[in-house]
Amino acid sequence: MFPLAAVLLVILMGAPALAATPPPAASPSEQCVDCHLERSPQIVADWRASRHFEAGVGCETCHPAEHVADADKGVLVKRGNVLPTPELCAECHSERVDQFKAGKHALAWTVMKAMPTAHMLPVTLGDGMKGCGGCHKIGVKTDDEIRELRKTGVGYGVASCDACHTRHTFSAAEARQPEACRSCHMGFDHAQWEMYSSSKHGVRHELRRMQVLPETAAAPTCQTCHMPAGDHGVRTGWGFLAVRLPMPEDEEWAADRTVILQALGVLDAAGKPTARFEAVKAADLARLTQESWQQERDAMEKVCTSCHAGSFAKGELAKGDDMIRQADRLMAEAIRTVAALYADGILKKPSAADSPYPDLLEFHDASSQIEQKLFVMFLEHRMRAFQGTFHASPDYALWYGWSELKRDVTEIADLARELRRNAAAAVAVKQ
Q1: Are 126 and 152 in contact (CB under 8 A)?
Q2: Which residue, 321, 311, 228, 241, is CA-closest to 276?
Q3: Beta-carbon neighbour count of residue 142 at 10 Å?
Q4: pLDDT digit string (tens) for 235-277?
Q5: What is the widest separation between alpha-carbon atoms in the chain?
Q6: 192-215+249-430: which CATH architecture?
Q7: CA dihedral 357, 363, 364, 368 (to 10 degrees)
């Protein structure tokens, strides 16, 4: 008998040589990681910390693009659809994307494009997503708009979901924190972060984080009140500008609101709807029926009563409504003052010559000091007065809101008198 080792040697020597098994080809994600670990390691780290990584969702799933060799540069360059759109996210998150599209965040891009002033911004601010687009890019865009953005080299304005679920962790926990809202909801015309964080709601949330209050303590976040069902359908009864239909029974308030709507260009001089009104209606930018407004108000009252008594909740929300009424009184007075200057030929109306009212949507592009004062009054001070009230922020409601509105009315009246004096002096010189 041959020793076992000899038998094995004979078998091996007599057997045909085995072909070497090639190593398995690297997956697309592995290929991405090999490169991006060197070029952008934090992107890889964020992805590896994400639910996507845990679920086996690789780079190529969200970035269905090809990389092609650039011989001149010696690198791979991107080609095709590199950054995901909401439609791509919907392939896995269809319910969430549908919720998002039903909320006002989805309208953000449309709203920005509708503003005359948005088209006058420098390229650095506009196409660079450093101005209005930096926040309004959360809105849904048409395919044509996306193609146009890519033509200008702006590939980072096509997405929406990553405004709150930031790349590449795309964390739901992150999006549930009030800080996720802060980067857009702060500053000049939308100081909601400042209002919230200085209110009792925001302070209690911070104290709970510091473990001064127990985990069971009521400490509402932005999401608690504005996304109460845990979905993405962010809506409010009054909307961003706090204008709505139908007109109130209060005749004075109805007249004031009409003037504001005329200055927004949605009603003409006779109080009839304009093309701009039809655009607002088509985009569902404001509550135009009592039923739609009441639906949103009922939803907010339900949120409030999870912590407060029903009578208290109704009363506080009613105070917010009344703040709008009183702010509208001052706003309409100032608009009428400027409109009278147009009517008397003292101030030249720069645009929309068929309307006797200033266009509040011209913003900082208005051509005179008094018109710009009116713009600041509307978009900053009026906003802070009523939003500060709804957010239970005393400082913003009073000193940054109501107090500034009162100053605005006085200053606009003074500027109007000065313009009239100058006009009268000019006529006297000619005579």
Answers
A1: no
A2: 241
A3: 10
A4: 888 988 999 999 999 999 999 999 999 999 999 999 999 988 9
A5: 137
A6: Up-down Bundle (1.20)
A7: 10
